[in-house]
Amino acid sequence: MLRSLPLFVLLACGGKADDTSTPTPPPAPTHPTTPTEPPLGTADTGSAPLTPPDTAPTALTGDTGTPATFERFEPVIDQILIDLASNDAPGVSIAIMEDGVVTWAAGFGSARPDSEVPVDEETLFQLGSTTKMYTSLALLQQVERGSLTVDTPLSTPLVGWDMANNPGSFDQITMHHLMTHQGAFYDFIDWTSMPRDSYLEEWMAAYAEELWLMAEPGQFMNYSNPNFMFGGLVLEQIDDQERSYGELVEQDVFAPLGMPRTFFKKADAEADGHYALGRGLDVNTGLTIDFTLDDVADNASGRPAGECTWSTPAQQLRMAAFLMQGDPAVLDDTLREQMVDRHVAMLEANDTSYGYGLFVSDGVYLGNGYHPVEVWSHGGNSYGYTSDFYVVPSTGFAISIMSSGWAQDFSGTVAVAMEQLADLPPAGPAPEWAFDPDRLDDHVGTYADVANGSFTVSRSGDGLQIDWPFLAQYGYTVAPDLLPIGDSLWVADLGAAAITLAFVGEPGQPSAYAANRVLVGNRVDEPVVARHAQPLAPRLVDPVPALFRPAAERAMLRR
Fold first, then answer.
1. CB within 10 Å: which end of the chain, N or C, has fewer?
2. Can you give the pTM of this predicted structure?
3. Up-side HSE of residue 158: CA atoms within 13 Å toward CB?
4. Residue range 242-276, pLDDT digits in tens
5. Cα-flanking dihedrals φ and ψ of residue 79, to 5°?
6. Domains of the chain, with CATH numbers?
7. Burial of 97 by CB count in 10 Å (0-12 exposed, 13-18 middle, 19+ buried)?
């Protein structure tokens, strides 16, 4: 059986993110820790003058390039100190790449929540879901070796496996579906400490036996961690050396990329000794606490999705360099380019798609407007850490920020760094959502989600209304009017939370689904009883990276 059902679900995508499986109130507000003096002589709490240029940090050892000109980074330093003070994390680390070369890396604040232990550019943090690009890379390495194709169904490497509640689904779900979040798996992850390597297979067997798909596979992208957990299991099953997922990725991906201090096990971080702890969610209570190492999750089942990957921002930028420049010793260029192809459009954004383990956007929203430029990104959250990873391939710019707190928001720092250093094209008109009133009739009807019951959508003029009695019985105040973003993307106001509902279907035909990351309503003829009643929690996730959604839309979803 799955242990401790329901457990906290990992909703890790780069923004404010978490979910519990019961409707508990959100944690009490917490107060940010005052940042301490960073060790590189680059900044302090903001009250003292910045270090003069002659003591500025230089380009990292092992990278080419000239020493960083300190003054260019002053706006970024100012903003990261503002962001650090407004978040819970006691520490943060940053690295910036320009023209394909790491030009600056630094740490700020403390590596411990209760004492002044300086963060520097070598301090380890956790990646969260930014790990998904590495799982994708490892799967594509197997494609290059001929062990798989992207169209190989799960039933081929996982012989005899299937979803008990959805028979035949492993014949439908392919490697392509796993790497693009199209497997339709209910998003669920184990946050207990189960570090033994065999637990990945044990957990996924229990998942296949007890949990379910939310839709037919391959119909649309819906961000869900088990896609990549099954991908990690596939890697184990086909490896002729019988290595664990962690051993395989560390040896075949991290080592050739030049990332020796990127690894999965907490014991390795403890042995390294140079790691950050901060403030995060207690897996048992859902409250925000000061973390000790015992509080940090170490679970083999979540490794392929990003539950417990340790690294530094400078090491992450080695992946950025690989994505932009390639390295045939790591992966064939044709397959590398597939990582950043626009394989499937996001339902929640009109200019963003998903590649293989990476978001691919046509532009970015900054303080001075929308800049039309291709951007690759992925964020990550674990219950004690947050990471941001952005690449602008046309200019060779990349940035990685890692912090020691759950669901931290350093998008302001990313925006300032891009404005100052990324050599972006001028701001221009942002893409607009289509709104065709004729589409509204397509969405009218009743939808049922396995865990969150049935809801009915009706039309009122050029608007839509919703009736959701299942959530109402759990104490949610469901506003009757849906708020439009586009003709097929709406916001449901649940009182304690606001969620997007994306209607999926062809114009002129009844929409087959009303989808959100944590639930998918399947069109039904009449309301049905929830088979696995687990009502969604007040704290929900927006899967769209912060800089890929305009401020007005972010405000609609903020609670």
1. N
2. 0.87
3. 26
4. 999 999 999 999 999 999 999 999 999 999 999 99
5. -75, -35
6. 31-427 (3.40.710.10), 437-557 (2.40.128)
7. buried
